[in-house]
Amino acid sequence: MTLMQTHHMMIIPRYLKRSIDRLLPLVLTLGLLLIASLFSAAAQALANTKIVLQDGSVIVADIIDYRDGEITLSTSFSRDLKIDSKLIKDIQASAEDQEISTLLLKDGRKVETAPMMVTSGLVALSDGEIVKLGDVSKLNPEPWELGKGYAWEGLASAALAVARGNTDADQLDLALNSQFDSVRDRITLRANLEQDTATVSFQSETADGESRVIRSSEPSADNWQVVSKYDYYLEDWTNHYLGVNASVESDAFADIRLRSYLGPYYGRKLLDGAAGKLDGELGFVWIATDFLDAEDTEYLGANWNITGESAVLGGDSRVYLTHVGILNMSDDNSVILDTTIGFGFPFFFGLEAAAEFTVDYDGAAAEGKKAIDQSYNLRVGYSW
After folding, report:
1. Under 8 Å between Cβ of 321 and 327
2. Which superfamily, per CATH, for 2-36+148-383?
3. Which of 15, 70, 297, 382 counts the most CB atoms within 10 A of its CB?
4. Residue 194 and residue 173 in contact, taking contact as beta carbons nearer than 8 Å
5. Banded model confidence at residue 303, pLDDT cuts 50, 70, 90
6. Where are the domains of the chain?
7. Cα–Cα distance between 100 and 368 in angstroms, integer?
């Protein structure tokens, strides 16, 4: 049988409907939680508050948040106005607002004031103590910021990807990024799955000279990965932490039946502020690869991780980066590099769209397999 002409290729993700049916209840639940949190945040806002600046300017607004020397206001001309606390002289709560406000001071103490009043940069607490506004770390902090439980945030997304490399096809990509953060530790989970089927239709000629259409289902992607990390913040160095990470992955097109690594690292928050977040980590991992056909490998590797995001482009958009590197410390000094760079922006009710570029380099690739995989993704997901 001779292949004459390929007419078209169509990606049919068979599990798409089943995945949507399973995810729909979760999405609805998370949506309800998000709406509830929005109403809760609105209830905690200090309404119609008079703010007097050092130059004499007066702003009447709702105080949405105050943390780390910056106050966030909602006014008639801006829903997200941020002002440095050094520019604030007085804060006068409205006559109707007599609710108790909880303040978390920079020395770790939790205090109360009712109502929230600032005079010449000084705050009068309910117990009669006077503190500087600059000594206040957070206004009405979340329970996790007081050492009770974790803050949970995450993003579940799907993408139509154009991949070139060991997987040379259009495909559907499902991903989950989740993080649990507290004042003492942090748990991170990242997972992704690509497992698509391509239906190929082509016209062929039989031995009798007749032509007919042949349809064949071929896998276009068959890989997955799960990465988990645990970080413990050092008590004296709040921007430093110790951690351990583990990863398990499989990629049939790269001849990898199972690749796993586990190891400790030292990490530091290189940047953590209004400009963005950037974490750097350095450690060691023991990595083992079970190939489908090639000879299996095990070795000790030096590991580094860089993770960050920034709102430098303005609005609620964000630029994010995830980079993982492993250097084989044996004689061959091969390197494994996984890098993802993306630009995301929100829609509404937690929906987010993103354009993403991923490039993976495997210096220890099996013989006959390409060392570089790259993909361009357009993602749509739900964040919480």
Report:
1. no
2. monomeric porin ompg (2.40.160.40)
3. 382
4. yes
5. very high
6. 2-36+148-383, 68-140
7. 68
What residues contact residue 226 under an 8 Å CB cut-off, 6+ apart? 189, 190, 191, 247, 248, 249
Q: How far is CA 165 from CA 170, 231, 362, 369, 376, in A?
A: 12, 34, 12, 9, 12
State the average pLDDT over residues 132-136: 88
- For residue 175, count CB atoms less than 10 angstroms from its CB and return exposed for 0-12, middle for 13-18, buried for 19 or more: buried
